[in-house]
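Progress report, Aim 2. The chain analyzed during this reporting quarter is listed below.
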Amino acid sequence: MEALLGKTLEELQEIAISVGLQKFAGKQLAQWLYVQRVCSIDEMTNISLKGREALKAHYTVGRHAPVREAVSVDGTRKYLFAVGEQFIESVYIPEEDRATLCVSTQAGCKMGCKFCMTGTLGFHGQLSAAEILNQIFYFDDLSNLVFMGEGEPMDNLDNVLRSLEIMTAEYGCAWSPKRITVSTVGVPAMKRFLDESECHLAVSMHNAFAAERAQIMPAEKMMSISEVVSLLKQYDWSHQRRVSFEYICWHGQNDSIRHAKELLRLLKGLNCRINLIRFHAGVEDIKNERRFPASDEKQMEWFRDYLTQNGLTTTIRRSRGEDILAACGMLVNSLTR
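Predicted C-alpha cells for the chain:
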C-alpha cells in the first residue's frame, strides 16, 4: 500500500477527494500525520469511520519503528531502519541543550569517496520522502536535523526537497529551515537545492586542490570544487542561512601550509566556515587506515588556528559514536551483522 507520510497538503487533499471525503479533510490528514504524528489511520478520529475505512483500503500511514539500536559510551545512539528489502542507519546525537538526528537519504551511496566506509556498501536505492521522514518522526525531542547519513542528498533531490517542505511548511511540522543542514559532495543539482530551499548547506570538500580531491572523490570530475565555490558565491550568505565546508584531516595529505593557503585562496570572498573532522578509520578497516592516516590533534589545532587567524572561521568538530560505527563516514549498516 502507498504511504500517506511524505504527501504534501495538495496531494492529501486530492487523496481525500479520491476516497469520497471533502477537500478540507486533506488538512485534517496533514494535522494527524505531521502534528499529531499518528502511526495508524484508525487514530484519525475526526475522520468518519467510513472515510477511514476507504483510506485503509488504499493507504497506510507509513510509520515503522527501527529494527535495531546501538548505544555509544558517549550517549550517541544508532538506529537500523528497514526500507523494503534494504536497511539504512540513522544517528541520534544528544547534547545538554539540543538533540540532533543524522538522516539518511539513500540506501548506500554511489559517490564512491575513497575514505568513506558508507561508499563500500554500493548503491541500493533512493529513499522515498516517507522513508526519510520515518527516521525523523521516531523521535519527539529533536532540535536539529543534518542530512549527512547514508547517500548523497542531491542525488535524491525530489524526495529530499519534499521532506524539507513538510518539515518546514505551516501545514507540516513548521520547523525553521535554519534548524536543518543538508550535505553534498558538490553536484549540479545543488543549484536547484539552493533555489528551492532555505536550509543550511554543508559541502564535503576535504581538499582544495582539484587534482588531489579527484583522487579521493570521483564527484570532483562531475562538478569541480572551484565550480561549487563559484556557484555558492552567487548567493547571499550574510544573513541567517549558512554554508560550511566539511574537511577531514589526514596526516601529510591535506593538513599542510600549502593546503591551508589554497583553502584561503579558493574561499576568499565567500561568507562561510570550515569544520575540521577527525578521521575515523573503522574498527576493521586496517587497509583504509594505512592509506589515510589521521592528522594528530596538534596539527589539526595548528590548521584551525592558521585559517581562523587569516579570516576563515574554522572549528574542530567533536567526534561522537565512533565505538558503534556511528561517526562521520562510518555508516555501513553494521547493525545487520
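The first strand starts at residue 2 and ends at 3. The mean pLDDT is 93. These observations will guide the mutagenesis work planned for the next reporting period.
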